[in-house]
Amino acid sequence: MNIKITGLLLASFILLFNALDAKTKKRAAHKTTAGTSMARGQIVYTNVCLACHMADGGGVPNMNPPLINTTYVLGNKAALIKIVLHGFKEDVEINGKTYSNTMAPHDNLNDRQIADVLTYVRRSFGNKASAVKATDVSKERTVGIK
Fold first, then answer.
1. How far, in Å, CA of 87 to CA of 104, rounded?
2. Which domains does the chain possess?
3. CB within 8 A of 34, min separation 6: which ones?
């Protein structure tokens, strides 16, 4: 009788341990993916965006708009993706200041790079917005083809 109970307890412990271990690995994989996207996005930002929008995301007065707490960055993902893909040629007013420098299109970046850099921007510089997925970018890129 004791051997049966001990065996059942041991089997229950093993099943419980395996379930907890699988849940922990799943959480770690999600954090790594999110962290990896941010790291990749920071690299793209440094190589492509930093010269105009500056290291702190503050932009350049009267030329390049800030990326800090603006509706362009925190708002509609599709509109933000379109700006990166197709560029931006309009004067824009943000917080009472006008910015007028033309942004070149960055359609040479692949969907993952655009998603990563926009995720980085939407979650950096004090911003707290949702991630952008490569499928979001792909959808907007396809819309531009039609």
1. 5
2. 2-145 (1.10.760.10)
3. 131
